[in-house]
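Box 3.1 — From sequence to structure: Choline kinase
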Amino acid sequence: MPLKNTIKFFVLSTVIIWNYRPKKSNIQHMVIKSFGKYNLSFSIIFTRGEYGMDLRQRLKNAIILAAGIGTRMVPINTELPKGMLEVNGERLIERIIKQLHEANIREIYVVVGFMHEMYDYLQDMYHVQLIYNPLYADRNNLYSLSMALNHLNNTYIIPSDVWLRKNPFLEKSTTSWYMITNAVDDNSFVRLNRQHELCLIPKSKAGNAMVGIAYLHFHDIERIRSQIFSLIENDKNKSAFWEKALCFRDRFFIPAKVVDVHDVMEVNTYEDLRELDHSSNQLKTDAISIISKVLQVAPEDIVDIKILKKGMTNRSFLFRCKRKRYIMRIPGEGTDKLINRKKEANVYYELADHDISDDVVYINPDSGYKISKFLNRAHACNPLDKDDVKKCMAFLRRFHKMDLKVNHYFDLFSEIDFYERLWKGVPSVHKDYLDVKTKVFSLRKFLSRQSIHLSLTHIDAVPDNFLIVNNGPREKIRLIDWEYAAMQDPHLDIAMFAIYSMYNKKQIDSLIDTYFVGECSEIMRVKIYCYISIAGLLWSNWCEYKRILGVEFNEYAEAQYEYAKKYYKLASNKIKNYQ
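Predicted structure (token representation):
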């Protein structure tokens, strides 16, 4: 080999190994002492563009996004993250990594969050690097990608929940692309045009199915980095997908890569997995087994599984079985510390045959799993609709007059202390917390002087738990989710409805008048103001515990704390009239 070519080869090899553009003096020292010949070789490499056309094309890496909870994957997501799903005996994320290795891509980063410990073994088995996203429960994958921005350089972006029949990483890529299929998808927000561009479309229109996989060429990296930085600074983008960083005006600024719909499948739901591999081990979850046993059906008869967004503490899903629809309630993470499921079951036994609650088919007092019949043509109470509120307050009053009894009591002040203990020494985010707590607890003296009749009280009588059913000639109302129900002053339910609805004082007074049909004494009203203050602190402490677990309630949490302070002041001023 001629000396010039030898130098050229050695210089290029060194650059590739180092993975950065080196100084001439470094290469001179390592390669050859003849500076003139070295300059000739160096000049040839860079003026011909061989550094860019070779090194930057060869150096590729991958970022796998695996932090999300995968809420649509109920009931499987209660047991493992989506990347760990098995198809034909092979985990999704392992298949992706093997396909990357087959394409000689060894620099792999996995952004993890939900059940992140389950991915730890990948570091030893496949030598990948894990990046932990602590905000996985409150952010979408745009934020996950932002945590790996320093690693963007000829990079494949891959969601962990895709199954690829063919290996797309074997093909040489000289430009950026975003993968779509030739299938039509109502949930897509892009559509392929004749110029092979991905144009943004309104929600009312269907587009090409988006896979979530992309190749980002180094020429586009700085632009994408800048877009991501700008997007994550705005809280409005907390729920944004990473693809938003590819948007410019009315289209993506990188072209499309179209694949056949049969060559790639995104596993978003239980039924997606069943369609892909009906014998997958993950189809045999506890929830499905319970449904099969209780309803005496085969797992294949459980269809149309859909996540229900409602609820602050539980993961519930809707399903259909033999032409009937049901709701399966799976207790959320950490709720075993907050709720006594045996007490909840006792409440449902007491409510049976009273035509008050949801129709429970099955409840487990140990695990908290619950199956209830779905109420057709029902809507939750709208706290801003006067007719809805009037109907629900009349229903609530009738329930209270039933004077039902159970064997357990809900102590508001003990529960406030209980939630505080769950913080395990973490100080409150509110600097005046101890002062506010002392003031709120001082209301106990006034309440102890009131003549209070205890009966079964819902405790969580919020608008979302009142279902107005229009199924037949006569409208009916059902009150659901009795997890906190216990013996208490039933008027506490009025306060709970008000603070969840974030009512102002005028709306709260109107609610009280609606419940009492205009016959509420002033001292009774002051008592309810006390409950608003106490309940505000209770749920504020609950929110602080959830925040420690990584679940933020932001505006709701702040509102509860403000109720505690504002209504303490209002109640204490009025209490002076009764001393």
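Summary of the box: Residues 458 and 553 are 22 Å apart (CA to CA).
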